[in-house]
Amino acid sequence: MKYADRMERLGTETAFAVLSQIQDFPPERREHVISFAIGEPDFDTPEHIKQAAIESINNNRTHYTPSAGIPELREAIAEYVSKQKNLNITSENVCVLPSAKFIINLSIATCTDPGDEIIYPNPGYPIYESQIRVFGCTPIAAPLIEEEEWGFDIDRLRNLMNDRTKMIILNNPNNPCGSVLSNRQLEALRELALQHDLWVLSDEIYSNLVYDNLTFHSIAELPDMQERTIILDGYSKFFAMTGWRLGYAISNPQLIDYFARWATNTISCTATFVQDAGVAAMKESMDPSWAMVRQFEERRNLICERLNDIEGISVTPPKGAFYVFANVTEACEKKGFKDSLQFQERLLDEQDVAVLARNFFGHKDPDERQEYIRFSYCVSTEDIKEGISRIKTFVEG
Ligand SMILES: Cc1ncc(COP(=O)(O)O)c(C=O)c1O
């Protein structure tokens, strides 16, 4: 028997390998590990959202729903997103799905054909490249530049575009860099998208996690962009609901119909009681989520301050998500490491601190001179202090 050729092209999120490595440690050592590797809130789902799901099950809300989601949820999302992103959205613009991640797959399946080129941010979330390849498209990595606060080099981006370019993927705020695209960058991206008639997949899963009193702007808010933009968003991060699997796409009604048809063909619909919980999350108080965001901002300040206090490590506080992407080039040189992956491996071996190297986040050019490590600050302030103090010993000691 032979597997499909496309399986050769299906990538993965290798970050999970580090987590299973820790799981294999003896229990006392596992206890000692401080992990900055996991990209999910360490907070629990707010109580009223859990109660809504429990009530829903008790009321036997356990049957199929329409493929695009229950009308109450589509309406609640439309109302919320219209305010949050300064857009005019109705439920026809919303498709509810069992994860935000699935929207990457559906967007490429719906808007591109084999041989098309798709531009994606690099460093970036590794699933983009994997999904581009599996559909027979060509991934074109667009470098994000540390000196541009991890935004695009727009001139370089322009040169990557040609008549085969069909889509550009944005991740705003960005994983792993924590960067938020400036209005200037959004304007330039809009111009390119219109000029080349591109689809824009705008992954905004971290859009409520922005700091320094920043107001988040979606590229879809700019003139003539709503029609060609697919906003990917969901409940995992802002509502601390990673395990619930609840996401939504916002786009034009035709594309939303196609997404619903994909849902009918694959998963039928999103779990009914999970959708009911989603309505409660949208309609009731979001105070617990905003309190979580404030804590993330404090942690960001703390982790950046402590990291910058280590010789050979530097980071400019990023404005969003819950990651910092620290430059460890000098620390690697000092320790004689060939790259950040060796930094990551030795740090776990010697100090029981888990982090993720640049290698996990998209294509790394052999001539890349700088080395980076992603820290997720989904850990308590005590763990941040202890973890970074161990890293200081590791680098300076
Ligand atoms: C950039 C980015 N997009 C999408 C997702 C997937 O979100 P979900 O868990 O809601 O499917 C993640 C999760 O880590 C992410 O970092």
Can you tell me about this structure?
The model has no long low-confidence stretch (mean pLDDT 97). This protein folds into 2 domains: 149 residues, Aspartate Aminotransferase, domain 1, CATH 3.90.1150.10; 221 residues, Aspartate Aminotransferase, domain 2. The chain is globular. A hairpin with a 5-residue loop joins strand 4 and strand 5. The longest helix is centred in the last third of the chain and has 22 residues. It has an 8-stranded mixed beta sheet, with helices on both faces. The protein is an alpha/beta fold and 397 residues long. It has 14 helices and 13 strands. It binds pyridoxal-5'-phosphate (PLP).
CATH class of the largest domain: Alpha Beta
Task: Using the coordinates shown, work out and report the CATH topology of the largest domain.
Answer: Aspartate Aminotransferase, domain 2
- In round numbers, the mean pLDDT is 97
Query: Into how many domains do the coordinates divide?
Result: 2
- How many helices in DSSP terms? 14
Shape: globular
Small molecules bound: pyridoxal-5'-phosphate
Largest sheet: 8 strands, mixed
If you compute it from the alpha carbons, what radius of gyration comes out, rounded to the nearest whole angstrom?
21 Å
